[in-house]
Amino acid sequence: MAVLALDTCLPTLSVALATQASCAVFQERIGTGHAERLAPVVRDMLAANGVAVGDLTDLIVTVGPGSFMGVRVGISFAGGLLAAGGITSRPVTLPRALRASAPSQQQGVCLIDIRRGQVSATVFEGEAIGAAELIDLETARQRWPNPDTAGVIGDGQRAIWPDRPPTGPLVPDIAQLARTPGKWAPGPFVPVYSRPPDARPPAPLVPIGAQ
Predict the structure, then answer these.
(1) pTM for this predicted structure
(2) DSSP notation for the chain
């Protein structure tokens, strides 16, 4: 078994490699530049543990919601690894990954900072994960006035209550993801975006003189 787990949806770049003998972890808040850092981190981690790309059995990747570029970086990189063949792809949404990182919390809300004064909010109860909702920071403060009792997880805590210590994990436990591949169903890596892309296709050109 050689399982690689990636999360590039958040400002923290998270990578873990689990084998029968060990689990190596890289986790660093880099803000931006995931595309430049991800490949060297994975290359060095594989080399340090004597694992070749062809030895990988499972690939676990968070598919969002998160930053538009972050989601795409992880999925695009994963697509390259899958080209080696023989690797089972296992997508996991960020709320589900964070929920698994807080096993003691039976109910609560996952809040992911997606910038521009908004968070992606996903309510969970047990293993049931609700649909993501895009709300502004003030709405979040009103809806969950006491984060200590609301079961809040995710890095949106920092944006909503910057002066309070977090009540739950800010990032997924990437090692836990890598150690439990059977928990995540196989499937294609389909991105889950927080909001529609800013770029819009150009309007059709109208020939000069057309009626």
Answers:
(1) 0.89
(2) -EEEEEE-SSSEEEEEEEESS-EEEEEEE-SS-HHHHHHHHHHHHHHHTT--GGG--EEEEE--SS-HHHHHHHHHHHHHHHTTSS-EEEEE-HHHHHHHT-TT--EEEEEEE-STTEEEEEEEETTEE---EEEEHHHHHHHSS-HHHHTEESTHHHHH-TTS--SS-SS--HHHHHH-GGGS---------SS--S--PPPPP--TT--
**47-93 confidence digits (pLDDT tens):** 999 999 999 999 999 999 988 889 999 999 999 999 988 999 999 99
Confidence grade of residue 205 (pLDDT, cut at 50, 70, 90): low
